Amino acid sequence: MKSPDQATSLCHSCPKLCRYACPVAETDQNEATTPWGKMSAMKLSENGILPFNRETASLAYKCLDCKASEGACELDNPVPETLFHYRAKAFAAKVAPPSILTYAEQFQKFSNPFGIDLQKKMKSLLPREFSTPLKKIAYFPGCSEIQHFPKSTAHALVLLRKCRIDLELFHEPILCCGYPLYAAGDIENFREIAEINIHAFQKYREVIVGSPTCLQTIDVTYRQLGFRFSTRFYHVVEKIKISPTSLHPLPELRTGQRIAYHDPCHLGRARGIYDPPRQFIKAATGVEPVEFFTNRANSSCCGAGGLLPISSPDTARQITMNRIEEFKRTGASVLVTASPECACRFKAIDPKIKVMGLLDLLS
């Protein structure tokens, strides 16, 4: 990967070709929050032209980590990864946004962003058969799924076992990948969680992950920070094998309701997984899902990533509302996504729309 200095230099000398790919810039309508503006500010601070104070550092947090600018960049410049480097610098210097510093401090109490004992909650909701130890394959749901969609975890385990995968629920104390700390710039504590998780993951040959963000964090970010492990990681949609004749449409979908599928950024642009979710929806309903106007590699972000709802809640809210309005224009009545974070975000901003996780639909 390009060094931060190389990446910011490339952006600083570019005529802003990715200007319209960034949902933050499109929402704020501010040149400073374009990928060019954010990267240029970091470059100017490195050169001593701008002070690296709270105002400058705040621009590094104006990023959803949605990978859209990378797709629009002919040089594949790693904008989110570079901005996250400067988040780490800002966090260490205590010039990160106050809301971010407070968020990271609260995270430390339970090693997750929800302030609960995730392992205890899982044990209270799932049958003991899913906690049988000594399996070689585990399912890692992630903290958002456990907190907001615990039934999805049970659905995933049942579906995977029906696919003849002998697995258990990941039963170590920490059920968070640490992404919120990484996005906050708290690299020291992020590394600590990563080390604990990697030690636990090494017990397994494979780990199947429910959250695309968790998968990207564990399988890519951990490695970028120098961690080495032999365990193989997959998103759950990569392991489920379903034939079109094995499913029966849900009762509420037999009335002709149509489903629109939202591509999560960390499953689509980051991992290139577009077709399996659509194939599963067709198998479950008998018809192709309705497409958003922006879809697949050009899909608009749900607004949940990069801790933007913490650092810039108004901008994040508008980005989510834009995606919801796009959903309404499709004419579909059900919004399905393969990301618990996206599903939670849509439900939080507009509780009136019907949102389903892909696993819940298949189950």
How are the secondary structure elements laid out?
Layout: H1 4-12, H2 23-28, H3 35-46, H4 54-60, H5 68-72, H6 79-92, H7 98-107, H8 118-125, E1 137-140, H9 143-148, H10 150-162, E2 168-169, H11 179-184, H12 187-201, E3 206-209, H13 212-224, E4 232-235, E5 259-262, H14 275-285, E6 290-291, H15 308-311, H16 313-330, E7 334-337, H17 340-349, E8 354-357, H18 358-362
Parallel strand pairs: 1-2, 1-3, 3-4, 5-6, 5-7, 7-8
Q: Ranges with pLDDT <50 over ≥5 residues?
A: none
Number of strands: 8
Overall, the morphology is globular
Q: What structural class do helix, strand and pairing data support? A: alpha/beta
**H and E string:** HHHHHHHHEHHEHHEHEEHEHHEHEH
Report strand order across the widest sheet. 2-1-3-4
Rg, Å, rounded: 20 Å
Strand content: 5-15%
What is the oligomeric state here? Answer: single chain
Question: What share of the residues lie within helices?
Answer: 40-55%
Largest sheet: 4 strands, parallel
Mean pLDDT: 91
How many DSSP helices? 18
Q: In whole angstroms, how far apart are the ends?
A: 40 Å
